[in-house]
Design brief:
By secondary structure, the protein is of the alpha+beta class. The chain has 3 domains: 138 residues, no CATH class; 111 residues, Butyryl-CoA Dehydrogenase, subunit A, domain 2 (Beta Barrel); 216 residues, Butyryl-CoA Dehydrogenase, subunit A, domain 3, CATH 1.20.140.10. 57% of the residues lie in helices and 14% in strands. α7 packs antiparallel against α8 and α10 packs antiparallel against α13. The chain starts with a helix and ends in a 7-residue tail after the last helix. The structure holds flavin-adenine dinucleotide. The site of flavin-adenine dinucleotide has 21 residues, from β3, β5, α13 and α14.
Length: 486
C-alpha cells in the first residue's frame, strides 16, 4: 500500500491506483474542495437538510426550499466544472464521473443532484421526441448559473424494491396532455426543475409492464403555479446536503417519454446510471474514511509507539485499502461498460446484459466495502469516534444511506442472479477475466448453483456474487486495464 496515494486525495487514487489520468480542471476542482467546499459541506451537514417554505406571505402554495448560506455556491461548483454539460456536449462520461468521484470523496450528498440530473437527462435525450425536447435538454445542461436541475422519482410509500406493485401514481390523457396524480415518498433533489417520474397510464397492465416514464416540470407550462407540491422534507441521518422530500402530484402536467409500454426499460436505464455513479461515489467516500484513520493513527501514541507504526493497524489498513482498490476498479470497469452501451435501446444485446450484471455487482459490493471502511475508521478513532465533533460518525451516516438508495443489497443480489439465469454470460466472463487464477472454483460453483431450483440456490447467491464482484475487481485492479466486450 502506498501511503502517499492514500494521503493524496481522490485524484492520486484515480491516477495511481486506477490508471485514470486527470485533467488540470479536475485537479483544480479537488483543490477547491480542499480549500472551500469541504468546510461548507461540513456546515451544511451540521445545519441539517434545507428547509421548506410552503406558503407565500399571501397564502399561495410556493413550496420553496430554503437553502443554507453557500449551498448554491457549493452545488454550482460541480455544474460549473462540467458535470452535466460535458456529458451533453461531448458525451464525456468519464470526466463527469471523475468529477463525481472527487465530489463524493468529500460529500456523497452533493453528488446526488448531479447524478439525478444526468440520469434524468438520459431518457429525455434518448427517447423523448416531443415539441419541448430542446428546451428540456438545454435546461438541464446549462453552462452558466442558474443551473437547471433534474430528479428521478419512482419510489412510493409501499416500497421501492417492488416498483411493479407499488407505483400507484396514475396518468390520464385529457385535452391533449397527460395529468398525473399520486405521491412519491422518497424524492431526492426535490425542488428540481424537471423530474422523470414513474406513473401508470390509465388502462395499462398491472405490474412493471404498466409503468411509464414522464417528465414533470416544477412549474406548470400550461397555466400558472407549481406543478408538484412538496409535502415535507425528510430529516435524514446522512446525505443531508441534498433535500429529499415527499412529493404530491395533483393533476400535474406530465410529458410522456417514448413508448409507454417500454417505460420500465427507461426506468431501469435511469437507475443503472445512478447505480454506476453510486458505486464510484462510495469508493471515493470510503477512501476518505481510510485517509482519516491514517491521519488519526499518525498522531495517536499508544504503548510507546504511534498507532500508525503498530503492525496490527498496518495489517488491517492494508486489507481495507486493498479491498477498496478492487471495489474502485469494479466501479470504474462498470463505468467503462456504461460508456459503450448507454446508447443501446430495447431489445438490448448480450453485452448490455453483462453491463447490467456488473452494475448489480458494483452497486451492492462497493457500498458494502465502503461502509466497512467507514466503520473501521470509526473503530480506529474509538471513543473519540463516537463524538459528533469528530469526523468518523459522518462517514458512517453517509455510507449507510448510499447502501440503501439506488436499490438495496437484496435487490441487487436477486436481480444480478436473475441476469445470470437468463443470459449465458459465464463464457463471456471467463473470456474477459481470468477468474480461475484468483478463485479457481468460482465459475463452476456458479454453474452448479444456476442449475438448482431457485429456492435451493437462495443461500448461495450472496457468497457467490460477492466472490464474483471481488474477483473481477481484483483482476481489473491488478491489470489496471478495463476489459470490455468488443
Ligand atoms: C435518502 C434517500 C433518498 C432517496 N431518494 C430517492 C429518489 O430520489 N427517488 C426514488 O425513486 N427513490 C428514492 N429513494 C428510495 C430508495 O430507492 C429505496 O429506499 C430503496 O429502493 C428501497 O426501497 P424501500 O426503502 O421502500 O425498501 P423496501 O423495498 O420496502 O424493502 C424492505 C426490505 O426488503 C428487502 N427486500 C426487497 N425485496 C426482497 C426480496 N425479494 N427478498 C428478500 N428481501 C427483499 C429490501 O432489501 C429491504 O431490506 C431514496 C431513499 C433514501 C433512503
Amino acid at each position: 500500500m502506498r501511503e502517499d496515494i492514500l494521503l493524496g486525495g481522490p485524484s492520486a487514487f484515480l491516477a495511481e491506483e486506477l490508471g485514470l489520468q486527470l485533467s488540470e480542471r479536475l485537479v483544480a476542482y479537488q483543490a477547491w474542495w480542499e480549500t472551500e467546499g469541504a468546510s461548507i459541506s461540513a456546515a451544511i451537514d451540521r445545519l441539517g437538510t434545507p428547509h421548506l417554505r410552503q406558503f407565500s406571505p399571501t397564502g399561495e402554495r410556493v413550496d420553496e426550499i430554503l437553502y443554507p448560506p453557500n449551498y448554491t455556491y457549493l452545488l454550482d461548483a460541480g455544474y460549473s466544472a462540467g458535470v452535466l454539460y460535458e456529458v451533453a456536449e461531448r458525451h464525456d462520461w468519464r470526466f463527469s464521473f471523475m468529477l463525481g468521484f472527487i465530489t463524493s470523496y468529500y460529500d456523497p450528498g452533493v453528488y446526488c443532484p448531479y447524478t439525478v440530473t444526468f440520469s434524468a437527462w438520459v431518457p429525455i435525450y434518448k427517447y423523448y421526441s416531443g415539441a419541448r425536447r430542446e428546451e428540456f435538454l438545454n435546461l438541464l445542461t446549462r453552462r452558466e448559473p442558474p443551473f437547471g436541475q433534474g430528479a428521478t422519482w419512482m419510489t412510493e410509500i409501499g416500497g421501492g424494491s417492488d416498483l411493479g406493485a407499488n407505483v400507484q401514481t396514475h396518468a390520464r390523457f385529457s385535452n391533449g396532455m397527460w395529468l398525473l396524480n399520486g405521491e412519491k415518498y422518497f424524492a431526492s433533489n426535490v425542488g428540481a426543475d424537471l423530474s422523470v417520474v414513474a406513473a401508470r397510464p390509465e388502462g395499462a397492465p398491472t405490474g412493471v409492464k404498466g409503468v411509464a416514464l414522464f417528465i414533470v416540470p416544477r412549474e406548470r407550462l400550461h397555466g400558472i403555479g407549481r406543478n408538484y407540491l412538496i409535502r415535507r422534507l425528510k430529516d435524514k441521518i446522512g446525505t443531508r446536503s441534498v433535500p429529499t422530500g415527499e412529493v404530491e402530484l395533483r393533476e400535474a402536467e406530465g410529458y410522456l417519454i417514448g413508448d409507454a409500454r417500454q417505460g420500465i426499460y427507461y426506468i431501469m436505464e435511469v437507475l443503472n446510471f445512478s447505480r454506476v455513479a453510486n458505486s464510484i461515489g462510495v469508493v471515493a467516500h470510503g477512501l476518505h474514511a481510510l485517509s482519516q484513520a491514517y491521519r488519526f493513527a499518525q498522531q495517536r501514541r499508544l504503548f510507546g509507539r504511534f498507532l500508525v507504526e503498530q503492525p496490527l493497524f498496518r495489517h488491517e489498513l492494508a486489507q481495507q485499502y486493498e479491498r477498496l482498490r478492487w471495489a474502485g476498479a469494479l466501479a470504474w470497469l462498470t463505468e467503462q461498460w456504461l460508456e459503450t452501451v448507454w446508447l443501446e435501446k430495447p431489445p438490448y444485446s448480450e453485452k448490455y446484459a453483462l453491463f447490467r450484471l456488473l452494475t448489480h455487482l458494483a452497486k451492492f459490493w462497493t457500498a458494502k466495502v465502503a461502509l466497512q471502511a467507514a466503520q473501521w475508521n470509526f473503530e480506529i478513532w474509538a471513543g473519540l469516534g463516537t463524538l459528533r465533533e469528530f469526523p468518523p460518525e459522518r462517514f458512517v451516516r453517509e455510507l449507510l444511506v448510499t447502501d440503501i438508495w439506488e436499490g438495496t443489497r437484496h435487490r441487487h443480489l436477486l436481480d444480478g442472479w436473475e441476469v445470470l439465469r437468463r443470459y449465458p454470460l459465464l463464457s463471456h466472463i471467463s473470456a474477459l477475466w481470468e477468474i480461475q487464477a484468483v478463485d479457481s472454483s468460482l465459475l463452476t460453483d456458479i454453474e452448479k448453483a444456476l442449475s438448482l431450483p431457485e429456492e435451493e440456490a437462495i443461500s448461495l447467491i450472496e457468497p457467490l456474487l460477492t466472490r464474483l464482484a471481488q474477483a473481477i475487481g481484483m483482476i481489473t485492479a491488478e491489470k489496471r486495464s478495463y476489459a470490455v466486450l468488443a
